[in-house]
Amino acid sequence: MPQVSILMCVYNGETHLREAIESILNQTLQDFEFIIVNDGSTDSTLSIIQHYQGIDSRIKLIENEINLGLEKSLNKGLQAVTGEYFARQDADDVSLPTRLEQQVHYLTKYPEVGAIGTAVESINQQGDRIGQDVPPTDHDALEALFLFNNFMHHSTLMARFSLIQAIGGYDATQRRAEDYDLWWRLSQQAKVANLPEILLKRRLDDAPRISTIYRKDQLHCSYAIAVRSIQTVMPKPLAEASYQKLWWALLEPIDRTSYEQYWHKDQGLSGDISQADIQALRNFWDFLIQHPGGQPSWGPMLEKLVWRLLIRQKTIAALSLLKICLQLHHPINWFKMGQYFLKPYLPVAALGLWKEARLSMSSVSK
């Protein structure tokens, strides 16, 4: 039995597939099987996989006669897994050489952790670095963040395969957000974590990605997962209509285009979170305040929302939310908060001073 089973699903991925495959074959940990599902590709993907299969017998090829989609292909690939640990990688990403070794070492050292991801470096189509993402590393913060959205990278996943089996693999009904759903369900059965080291290069190329083409579906599915997550762990009912406004408000700084197109365009000002919504979410705030991951994960997000509310002169709502930040014991940047509080009113104040100065000068001249 191999120590690790890596699963890669690919559809028409000839451009970056060689680099992705070689990044797995060149790992410092060599005790693995490499399962590649060719999801009905019509380009040279199949011949590329067959070439590497002829070189390395650890590669197992599964062919779909027609394109089934990622979720079904993932579950099909799971049926071929025989390793102790299950790992994922996308067909356009690149694992750094020590990725598998470091993840196995961590899971061996901490048996209470069931699944682990890593930090990532973002690269463009040419492989040039364009950024990085270092998500929270501890379980409590990640579990609290899952109440809003997914903050772990699917392509960095390594989990105990027995745990993957226990939760039934991927939920094929969670289209476009199957990774968020999987991470959440894993977190409810065991601890999850992230390594702070960058161990994968995540490609953000110029080609339309599923998350771009089907962004609306992905967002609505992610919102439904967030609500389900809260309802699972929170003992009291959630004011869902108010939480929906909060969810979209928190999404705006992350993806303003999607916020404008899929929420504000239809809802307008009625979709903005208000003081009444913040009050209606009292049960949720109480739950977050008691949650050990509430402050480090939600504090920064809520403070940014306070800033935006102040800029829009929604002062009462902003102060209500600021109170929640203080109850979460989030350290407030009071200087910056003061700037956001005064900014909308400065032009009016400056105009008033200018008019007063003109009147004074006029009276003196007379």
How would you describe this protein?
With 366 residues, this protein is an alpha/beta fold. It folds into 2 domains: 4-208, Spore Coat Polysaccharide Biosynthesis Protein SpsA, Chain A; 271-347, no CATH class. The protein has 17 helices and 9 strands. The chain has helices spanning 14-25, 45-55, 70-78, 99-109, 139-145, 161-166, 178-187, 210-213, 215-233, 240-251, 256-267, 275-280, 282-290, 294-311, 315-327, 334-342, 346-365; strands at residues 4-10, 32-39, 59-64, 85-88, 94-95, 113-123, 129-133, 158-160, 191-203. Strands 1, 2, 3, 4, 5, 6, 7, 8 and 9 form a 9-stranded mixed sheet that branches. α14 (294-311) packs antiparallel against α15. The termini are far apart.
Tell me the fraction of residues in β-strands, as a range.
15-25%
Helix count, DSSP H or I runs of 4 or more residues? 17
The helix-and-strand class reads alpha/beta
Low-confidence stretches: none
How confident overall, as mean pLDDT?
A: 92
Concise structural overview:
Helices cover 51% and strands 16% of the residues. It is of the alpha/beta class and 366 residues long. Strands 1, 2, 3, 4, 5, 6, 7, 8 and 9 form a 9-stranded mixed sheet that branches.
